[in-house]
């Protein structure tokens, strides 16, 4: 890496870095540099080490409580118990470690897919490469929309401007060039350098990498800031809070029971034992970690369907999204543009004429404007070649295809009239222009949205030559007609001058040529997705820079609006320029509108803010560099993987690798499912733990023998908590999950109704446990051990079967997402196998204080277990639970 490259000439820099600007580095040199300098990533973004993950498992309140319980057990000479609790601590930490480790690794693997890439020249060949593999000395090619992958010195540069807001705070774009600068030039003024993380907004350049990773400018600031420390997702935070709350509740309860027992003169050792049992019973061992696992699993699942989630919390927000803003071209349409209609003064060519070379020849001989339009279309066009262009603009590509198809020689036209200046297309201005050399002078070639160009045109090219342009109104109608048929339109104009025009005069006094209508077929699967969104209470809004009539027609075709929708459904961008100061009536209109046309990128951002002000959770689909502020601001920024610029992909939370609108539906569905699964998991776990706490508390209060001993509870929690609960976390989701309204973000994980359900399921299990204890102790007068064992097995089986209480009551008991979840059945089988094994092995039987039970006693257990299920189900079917 070299210092102060801005103060060196291009030759000096490339010489120092030992690289040829034309051929780039060789593979062997790249390998050497990779082992010397490492990868081009910032340290804080590097993966968490395995040791740290393991260590963090012990920094958990659950472990603190279990640790205290084991110390108490040792203090009271309960060695077996003490060691057992220690084993559980280790076991919990190790399971936690493996699960989190795997979840993080799969998350990181996804991050790698989502990583931005860059065009690099190596061994004389240009290729696309993940930016992490760049080394100092690499030759990179930059174009509009790219995120600068490393600090680099410019070698060549064509009207390049970048936004360096992330680095310097300067939000305006900065012009770049390759000229050598003085060594004292401050960083913000180093115009011959580009810095990692800045965004190319215009132009193109070739540059040589001078610094990578932490050595880059951004690397040095972010090392100071260290802002990107891995945050827990809001969901994980909520779950952590819930477990801490539960711990406190249990500790209070345990304290009360111990004190009251002590006052009543009970044996203090027994009371402490009960306290330990309670604490152990209430700890939801797997609660926080399941969130990470469920979220990470959801992410992996989505990645298989071409949806890359970049931030863990995005999964949660996806389930809350109630407005999805989308653009039109490529998302709702196929982005396969073709010339469909061409209108010039006095003639209209539709695709039938355009298919026919003979008729074209006839027209071109007769009509000067056709030749001129093709000439302007070819010259005022950035397509170099289909193969070389990374992200070809489909409308420009359609023009080149069209020119070839009707027999024009694109290369020859371009050679004949070389370009000497370009004013690039911008979504704000909606036109582009080039200045080309002509035999005896200069020709300005202009193409763009009709409304943006028409006012600059004072003449029109007719069959009889250039005439004053009088009848502009008729042209508005022509364009309207094209747009009403769903065509995207471009208007063309030119101007010939003998002398080189001043830049501000380039698009003055133009000669209008005509308009071309492009057909871009709507995507076939969008209708279905929009219908699903409607049912899911999610509003889809189209925000486009295109003409209102084109937007309306496409919106109709994809089912976003229907013919009956009133005129206010489509709103023109110019009507909402000042969106912050609208009358309440107008705000209402905007809230009801579904299509916004002729919108600028700034207005896209305004719309996101507007919806958020009205309490919506907004998903925003975008692709361009201009979309980045809106993508960032939206609750969920969704970038297109194929069409999207590197800048859009960098800021987005979600990347659709296949650019399909329908993939957003998959993502939202998965987001909802994961949240539901976590809820199921939590309700299941809490109801099981609740049953344990209450059973012990009741036994302590009524001076019954303890129905459960600490070791038995630990065993139960490891068997009944972990496997079925994890299986619930892997559920496929309800069939009708996309028929429900979006979740209210303010809603807690466990709503009031879910708390009631949790308590009812917990109480049903408790009734069975206490019931069998009474029955065996008082009526059957069985020995203490047998009573305890019967209570233990009742609790165990009732907890396992409790998994079938989880589905919503609108589903049948036999046909629902839990009975259809293969994981649940596997978990139940595994749990049962463990129980049988433990029961059969003498050592474990001794540790768990198990005694042989008779067949009759097992049947009694079965009856009580069934009763607990019946009670829960009866209450559920009468509407007492969810
Ligand atoms: P969509 O929602 O369909 O993706 P958009 O919001 O990206 O559209 P823009 O690409 O900004 O819209 O296009 C707005 C208008 O600018 C188009 O209707 C067209 O008339 C004009 N336009 C588009 N591309 C070009 C181009 N390459 N050169 C000149 N004018 C263009």
Short description:
The protein has 882 residues and is an alpha/beta fold.
**Ligands bound, unique:** adenosine-5'-triphosphate
What are the low-pLDDT stretches, counting only 5+ consecutive residues below 50? 224-231
Question: What percent strand?
Answer: 15-25%
Distance between the termini: 63 Å
Q: Please describe the biggest sheet, giving its number of strands, its sense, and whether it closes into a barrel.
A: 9 strands, mixed
Number of helices: 31
Arithmetic mean pLDDT: 86
User: Which value, in Å, is the CA radius of gyration?
Assistant: 35 Å
How many β-strand stretches?
A: 24
Secondary-structure-based class equals alpha/beta
What shape does the CA trace take?
elongated
Q: Give the % helix.
A: 40-55%
How would you explain this protein's 3D organization?
This protein has 882 residues and is an alpha/beta fold. The chain contains 31 helices and 24 strands. A hairpin with a 2-residue loop joins strand 1 (117-122) and strand 2 (125-130). Mean pLDDT is 86; it is low at 224-231. It binds adenosine-5'-triphosphate (ATP). Adenosine-5'-triphosphate binds next to helix 15, strand 13, strand 14 and strand 17.
């Amino acid at each position: 890496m070299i210092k102060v490259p801005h103060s060196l000439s291009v030759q000096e820099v490339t010489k120092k870095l030992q690289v040829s600007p034309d051929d780039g580095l060789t593979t062997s040199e790249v390998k050497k540099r990779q082992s010397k300098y490492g990868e081009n990533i910032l340290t804080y973004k590097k993966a968490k080490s395995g040791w740290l993950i393991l260590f963090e498992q012990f920094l958990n309140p659950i472990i603190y409580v279990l640790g205290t319980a084991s110390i108490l057990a040792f203090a009271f000479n309960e060695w077996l118990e003490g060691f057992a609790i220690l084993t559980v601590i280790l076991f919990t930490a190790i399971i936690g470690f493996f699960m989190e480790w795997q979840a993080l690794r799969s998350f990181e693997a996804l991050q790698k897919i989502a990583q931005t890439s860059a065009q690099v020249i190596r061994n004389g060949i240009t290729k696309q490469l993940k930016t992490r593999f760049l080394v100092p000395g690499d030759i990179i090619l930059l174009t509009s929309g790219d995120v600068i992958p490393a600090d680099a010195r410019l070698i060549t540069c064509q009207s390049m401007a970048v936004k360096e807001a992330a680095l310097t705070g300067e939000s305006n774009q900065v012009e770049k060039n390759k000229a050598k600068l003085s060594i004292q030039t401050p960083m913000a003024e180093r115009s011959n350098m580009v810095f990692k993380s800045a965004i190319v907004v215009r132009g193109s350049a070739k540059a040589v990498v001078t610094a990578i990773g932490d050595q880059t400018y951004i690397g040095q600031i972010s090392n100071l800031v260290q802002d990107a420390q891995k945050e827990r997702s809001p969901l994980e935070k909520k779950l952590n809070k819930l477990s801490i709350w539960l711990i406190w509740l249990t500790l209070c309860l345990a304290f009360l029971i111990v004190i009251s027992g002590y006052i009543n003169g009970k044996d203090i050792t027994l009371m402490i034992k009960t306290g330990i049992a309670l604490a152990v019973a209430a700890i939801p061992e797997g609660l926080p970690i399941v969130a990470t696992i469920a979220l990470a699993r959801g992410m992996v699942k989505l990645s298989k369907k071409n949806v890359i989630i970049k931030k863990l919390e995005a999964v949660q927000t996806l389930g809350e999204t109630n407005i999805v803003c989308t653009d039109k071209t490529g998302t709702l349409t196929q982005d396969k543009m073709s010339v469909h209609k061409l209108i010039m003064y006095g003639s209209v060519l539709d695709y039938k004429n355009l298919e026919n070379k003979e008729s074209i020849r006839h027209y071109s001989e007769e009509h000067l404007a056709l030749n001129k339009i093709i000439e302007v279309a070819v010259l005022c066009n950035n397509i170099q070649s289909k193969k070389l262009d990374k992200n070809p603009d489909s409308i420009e590509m359609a023009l080149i295809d069209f020119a070839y198809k009707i027999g024009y020689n694109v290369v020859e036209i371009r050679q004949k009239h070389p370009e000497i200046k370009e004013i690039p297309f911008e979504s704000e201005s909606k036109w582009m222009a080039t200045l080309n050399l002509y035999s005896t002078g200069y020709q300005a070639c202009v193409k763009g949205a009709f409304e943006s160009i028409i006012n600059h045109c004072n003449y029109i090219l007719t069959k009889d030559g250039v005439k004053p342009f009088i009848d502009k109104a008729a042209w508005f109608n022509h364009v309207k007609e094209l747009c009403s048929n769903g065509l995207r339109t471009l208007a063309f104009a030119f101007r010939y001058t003998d002398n080189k025009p001043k830049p501000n005069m380039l698009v003055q006094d133009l000669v209008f040529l005509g308009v071309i209508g492009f057909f871009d077929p709507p995507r076939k699967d969008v209708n279905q997705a929009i219908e699903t969104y409607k049912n899911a209470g999610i509003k889809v809004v189209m925000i486009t820079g295109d003409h209102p009539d084109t937007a309306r027609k496409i919106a109709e075709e994809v089912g976003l609006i229907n013919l009956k929708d009133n005129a206010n459904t489509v709103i023109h961008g110019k009507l909402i320029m000042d969106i912050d100061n609208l009358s309440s009536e107008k705000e209402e209109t905007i809230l009801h509108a579904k299509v916004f046309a002729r919108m600028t990128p700034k207005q896209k951002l305004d719309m996101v803010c507007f919806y958020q002000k009205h309490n919506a959770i907004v998903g925003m689909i975008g692709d361009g560099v201009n979309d980045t502020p809106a993508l960032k601001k939206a609750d969920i920024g969704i970038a297109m993987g194929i069409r999207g610029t590197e800048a859009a992909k960098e800021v987005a939370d979600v990347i659709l690798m296949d650019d399909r609108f329908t993939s957003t539906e998959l993502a939202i569905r998965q987001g909802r499912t994961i949240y539901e699964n976590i809820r199921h998991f939590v309700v299941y776990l809490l109801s099981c733990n609740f049953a344990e706490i209450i059973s012990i508390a009741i036994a302590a209060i009524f001076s019954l023998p303890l129905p459960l001993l600490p070791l038995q509870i630990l065993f139960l929690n490891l068997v009944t908590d972990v496997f079925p609960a994890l299986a619930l976390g892997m559920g496929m989701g309800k069939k009708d999950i996309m028929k429900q309204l979006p979740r209210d973000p303010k809603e807690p994980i466990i709503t009031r109704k879910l708390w009631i359900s949790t308590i009812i399921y917990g109480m049903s299990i408790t009734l069975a446990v206490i019931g069998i204890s009474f029955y065996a102790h008082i009526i059957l007068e069985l020995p203490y051990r047998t009573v305890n064992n019967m209570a233990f097995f009742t609790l165990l089986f009732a907890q396992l079967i409790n998994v079938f209480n989880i589905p919503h009551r609108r589903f049948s008991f036999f046909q629902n997402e839990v009975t259809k979840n293969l994981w649940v059945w596997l978990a139940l089988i595994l749990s049962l196998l463990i129980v049988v094994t433990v029961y059969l092995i003498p050592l474990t039987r001794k540790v768990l204080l198990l005694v042989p039970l008779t067949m009759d006693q097992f049947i009694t257990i079965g009856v009580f277990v069934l009763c607990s299920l019946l009670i829960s189900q009866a209450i559920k079917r009468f509407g007492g639970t969810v």
